[in-house]
Amino acid sequence: VGLALGYNGGDISWTDDVSVNGTKYDLDMDNNNVYLNAEIRPWGASTNPWAQGLYIAAGAAYLDNDYDLAKRIGNGDTLSIDGKNYQQAVPGQEGGVRGK
């Protein structure tokens, strides 16, 4: 029987690095994954390579990932989504769109 306990996590922030249909977005990722796996080898310490390669695995995981996609536009900038162009409603302020 083999056990594996692991964690994969961290924050990643990309500024203007994700491009979708020519529009650049800021992407923030917050990853938090914890997992536990168990492996059972039914034939134990067999010297047969085929028997060594066969095993049964089961596991459980906790996934808590948060992704944030944002686009900000300033004065005179245009945001294009699905072939439609959008401009700021109030000049002199920053506008944008955000998705989670």
Automatic annotation (TrEMBL):
Gene3D superfamilies attached to this UniProt entry: 2.40.160.170
UniProt protein name: Carbapenem-associated resistance protein
Organism: Acinetobacter baumannii
